[in-house]
Design a protein that fits this description.
Blueprint lengths: L2 H61 L3 H6 L5 H33 L3 H28 L3 H26 L3 H21 L10 H22 L4 H10 L1 H16 L2 H14 L6 H37 L6 H17 L2 H9 L3 H26 L1 H10 L5 H10 L6 H19 L2 H18 L1 H15 L11
Length: about 475
């Protein structure tokens, strides 16, 4: 079997497993979020999301992007893999110790005393994520996405099971935090079992130097993007309060759970695109098709949920969560637009233009936070939702660089798909679910009737859904 054909089979097989795992994960996540958020209420849930925002930022920071060296280095040596473990066992543990000491600063900033003790409890999980991701990166390098999805899936099931059980029996916000720790523990242990790496503490600088020079530029670009996870603890909580943090946390969680295809493609994109960076035609075709698929599935699902959320959220979560239905449509629109540029950024990472991704992420985060600081005191959570949209033009940076490297992608179909959902998204804020859903149905029925390109996209997606083998229907590699 030829190399391109073998890679394509691995990608499609991995894509199926990642999709099935994400479906399972999303279903369990929605159930656990429903139980946990309803049981805890906005205030206690706000404590959880404020703490986890800092925790996720520390897990990404602790990796320093060095794991990407394992995925993308063409001629990887066994010693290099072991040296990364040695780095995490020394510098990584030192980083966790330092963060353990400064956790009171996060409590001081957020005004939530519980944040400090929560972060100290989770600090060991930050290190487990570092060493466990070495084995995960090696599995991804070999395109064993089925094994990666299995590890992620089982560890998340353990997390949700423990979290829900503790919350139901005790009503404590420690439930989801204990579940998170268990998830990272199981993930690290199982990943090591599937791809063992010698555990060592001794450095060999000749190997580490190459890893550092390669990984740090990627880390800087990715690190700026991970600052977004600090939006709730550093911006929302101090400006609007811990209950508002809980409402924004639930809103973002709902958007995340509705972004199934986006998550799967983003997980696979760098590993796959890195193998075809010299083939301009393939890259451009992947971007054009990927944008259309992402736009259609993201915004159609989010718009449908927005239409029914004024009835669904109060029924399932309680009336105290109703404000999330007002800001969800704006946040979902912003997420749909940003999804269009996911593959742009993956391509820029793959060709080594990490500095461009850094610039784009920096301007985006700076704009988002600045607008939040200006609008939230006057408009409350509406200010946050508006800031998500106003910050979107910063994605022009990624577009401009991609156009320079290859040529401009065709945004026309993706733009039509997203803009068609705008009337129903706005209607869902002000009118009844029946009226807003009618607007959504009429808008897309009209677009499908007059636009043959959209009909072709729908046919392709339906063909993919009906065939696990996906013979030539999603030709992105």
């Amino acid at each position: 079997m030829s190399e391109p054909k073998n890679i394509k089979n691995k990608v499609l097989r991995g894509g199926i497993f990642l999709t099935l795992r994400q479906l399972l994960s999303s279903g369990l996540s929605v159930i656990s979020m429903l139980v946990i958020a309803r049981s805890l209420g906005p205030e206690k849930y706000g404590i959880v999301v404020s703490s986890l925002g800092v925790f996720y930022f520390l897990t990404w920071t602790g990796q320093m992007g060095l794991n990407m060296y394992l995925v993308r280095q063409p001629n990887l040596q066994k010693k290099e893999v072991e040296q990364l473990v040695a780095f995490y066992n020394t510098v990584g543990l030192a980083f966790c110790g330092l963060m353990w000491m400064v956790t009171p600063l996060f409590s001081l900033w957020t005004g939530v005393p519980e944040v400090s003790s929560i972060l100290r409890w989770l600090m060991l999980a930050v290190w487990l994520n570092m060493v466990g991701d070495v084995s995960i990166s090696m599995l991804s390098r070999e395109l064993k996405f089925d094994q990666v999805s299995l590890v992620d899936g089982i560890s998340q099931i353990a997390n949700y099971s423990l979290s829900v059980s503790i919350v139901l029996f005790t009503g404590s916000y420690w439930g989801p935090l204990t579940g998170i720790f268990l998830q990272y523990f199981i993930k690290a242990c199982w990943a090591y079992t599937l791809h063992p790496v010698r555990f060592t503490f001794w450095w060999q600088w000749s190997y580490l130097k190459k890893i550092m020079f390669y990984g740090v530029p990627f880390f800087v670009a990715s690190w700026v993007q991970t600052l977004r996870s600090l939006t709730i603890p550093l911006i929302i909580t101090p400006l609007a309060g811990v209950e508002a943090a809980g409402i924004v946390g639930v809103t973002l969680r709902m958007v995340e759970q509705l972004s199934l295809l986006r998550i799967v493609i983003r997980q696979m994109s760098i590993s796959v695109i890195a193998k075809f960076i010299e083939d301009s035609a393939t890259i451009l075709r992947a971007i054009n098709q990927g944008m259309n698929y992402l736009a259609l599935i993201m915004v159609s699902v989010c718009a449908t949920f927005a239409c029914i959320s004024p009835w669904l959220i109060p029924t399932l979560f309680g009336t105290e969560w109703s404000q999330s239905t007002k800001i969800f449509p704006l946040v979902a629109f912003a997420a749909s637009v940003s999804a269009v540029f996911d593959l742009h950024q993956a391509t820029l990472h793959a060709v080594g233009r990490n500095n461009i991704v850094t610039i784009q992420n920096s301007t985006y985060i700076a704009s988002l936070w600045l607008i939040c600081w200006c609008l939230i005191p006057a408009l409350g959570l509406w200010g946050y939702a508006i800031a998500e949209i106003v910050a979107l033009p910063n994605y022009y940076v990624s577009h401009r660089e991609f156009k320079f490297l290859y040529e401009s992608p065709n945004y026309w179909n993706a733009a039509l798909i997203i803009l068609t959902a705008v009337p129903s998204l706005l209607a869902s804020i002000f009118v009844s679910p029946i009226i807003s859903f009618t607007v959504l149905f009429f808008s897309y029925t009209t677009l499908i009737t007059i636009n043959s390109n959209l009909r072709k996209i729908l046919v392709d997606l339906l063909s993919i859904a009906r065939s696990k083998k996906q013979k030539g229907k999603l030709d992105i590699v």
